[in-house]
Write a structure and sequence with these properties.
This protein is α/β, with parallel strands linked by helices. The chain folds into four domains: 91 residues, GMP Synthetase, Chain A, domain 3 (2-Layer Sandwich), CATH 3.30.300.180; 184 residues, P-loop containing nucleotide triphosphate hydrolases (Rossmann fold, 3-Layer(aba) Sandwich), CATH 3.40.50; 67 residues, Helicase, Ruva Protein, domain 3; 90 residues, DnaA protein, C-terminal DNA-binding domain (Chromosomal Replication Initiator Protein Dnaa, Chain: A, Orthogonal Bundle). The chain has 22 helices and eight strands. Strand 6, helix 11 and strand 7 form a beta-alpha-beta unit. Helix 10 packs across helix 11. It is globular and about 60 Å long. The termini are far apart.
């Protein structure tokens, strides 16, 4: 009996870890790499055993996700475990092309062509939650018109800096079309460019390219693909995506793409693919003005059923100007603290909470950014402007690129000029920093903390 209870406890711990990982990771990343794992945790030996369906997945989890899994186990059990990741003997048969990971669909095997691929719960956002202002009106109208077939183009490209709403609009389109999928028999795939690449690599390794091509060319009607800049420098993946892209559009199917960069700014991308990206409707989301930020924060407070004083709304909107995602996160934390402490939301409480976020002070110039970065990384200006490839210099240089892109109005060419780099190098550096931060890896968390020290 005790043994049975012990086994049950081990399973329950893994299930609780899964719940935390599902909330903290992007849906595609979770379903592609975490969901296939079988796990058990032994608190006596502090050992978390994970079994992957094949060695490819096991290796990827060890390299990319092990630290995140350890953190989740620590939250559940209070113990920091050793992790043992193995692969099952029959894992060669596994393929994400069958499990539907990264693709919006029900958990089932090979699909008949007419089966709708959708799981509405995968979409967190909808059009009703999106606050429209001068900065994003064109993108909002284009996205909604795209769903309602009021726009002649079968391709939409959304571009903005991090945290300004392109994912919100992409998921809103997915939800809008998914809600009507049964009626109109629409089949939708929603995933990131990185997840598309991972599935392509898996298909090549398991010799299932025919299934991969069928899934992304024949078994969907709409492709929603985020962060297209991930394809930079990946020639073979670009070739397969371009073939998929052409196939979909030859069949009259729709494609929605998002990126931090405009097509013309992408580096290491085949000219044919760049040309294809430029053919559809292009909408840029700019930084929101003060009025729009105030509207956003009041709308979110209303959704949280929180009473937000005017002076607090103005304070938060004035302090966090460049990232709506951070603005919303700050509000969530403010409301949570007020409820935990059983007090009203006040300006003093808001001033305490905002200390943990990127805030907009006086406008920085490139010399100031470079000086602050050099000081924190303990490098000289000459070294990060030189051709040095030392890890410390490269990281400092990339952080300077990232901060300048987010907190100034300098063009990519101007940013590169101040550090003796081409705009293509600037793009690559920004992408590296964004990727680490979005993954919430130990390096990403340290980078975010460092950037906060520079901009606050």
């Amino acid at each position: 009996m005790k043994f049975a209870l012990k086994i049950c406890s081990m399973i329950n711990t893994w299930e609780k870890i899964l719940l935390i990982l599902e909330k903290s990771l992007k849906p595609g990343l979770f379903h592609l790499w975490i969901r296939p794992l079988k796990g058990s945790f032994n608190p006596e030996s502090e050992l978390l055993k994970l079994e992957a369906p094949n060695e490819f997945i096991a290796s990827w989890v060890r390299e990319k996700l092990q630290d995140i899994i350890v953190d989740a186990c620590l939250k559940v059990s209070g113990l920091k475990p050793d992790v043992e990741i193995s692969s099952s003997s029959n894992g060669a048969a596994y393929s994400p092309l069958q499990s539907g990971q990264g693709v919006i669909r029900h958990k089932q095997q090979a699909l008949p062509v007419k089966t709708p691929l959708r799981v509405v719960s995968s979409f967190q956002f909808n059009f009703d939650d999106f606050v429209v202002g001068p900065c994003n009106e064109l993108a909002f109208v284009a996205s909604r018109s795209f769903c309602r077939k009021n726009i002649s183009s079968d391709q939409l490209f959304l571009c903005s800096s991090t945290g300004l709403g392109k994912t919100h609009l992409a998921q809103s389109m997915g939800r809008f079309m998914s809600d009507r999928a049964d009626k109109n028999n629409i089949r939708i795939a929603y995933l990131t460019a990185e997840e598309f690449a991972n599935q392509l690599v898996m298909a090549l390794r398991t010799k299932r390219m025919d299934e991969f091509k069928a899934r992304f060319r024949d078994q969907i009607d709409v492709l929603l693909l985020e962060d297209i800049h991930f394809f930079q420098g990946k020639e073979k993946i670009q070739d397969e995506f371009l073939s998929t892209f052409n196939s979909l559009q030859c069949q009259g199917k729709k494609v929605v793409l998002t990126s931090t960069f405009l097509p013309k700014e992408l580096n290491g991308v085949d000219s044919n693919l760049v040309s294809r990206l430029c053919r559809g409707f292009l909408a840029v989301i700019d930084r929101p003005d003060m009025k729009t930020r105030e509207q956003i924060i009041r709308k979110k407070a209303e959704m949280l059923q929180a009473s937000l004083p005017d002076d607090v709304a103005v304070f938060l909107a004035g302090k966090i100007q460049n990232d709506i995602r951070q603005l919303e996160s700050c509000l969530h934390n403010l409301v949570f603290q007020a409820r935990m402490l059983k007090v009203n939301i006040t300006l003093d409480l808001a001033m305490q909470v905002i200390k943990n976020y990127d805030v907009q002070g006086q406008k920085m110039d490139m010399d100031q950014i470079i000086s602050l970065v050099c000081k924190l990384f303990d490098v000289s200006r000459e070294s990060i402007s030189s051709k040095s490839r030392k890890k410390q210099n490269v990281m400092a240089r990339n952080v300077a690129f990232y901060i300048a892109r987010r907190f100034t109005d300098f063009s990519l060419k101007e940013i590169g000029y101040h550090l003796n780099r081409r705009h293509s190098t600037v793009i690559k550096g920004i992408t590296i920093i964004e990727k680490e931060i979005s993954r919430k890896s130990p390096v990403g968390r340290q980078l975010k903390q460092t950037i906060n020290q520079i901009v606050t």
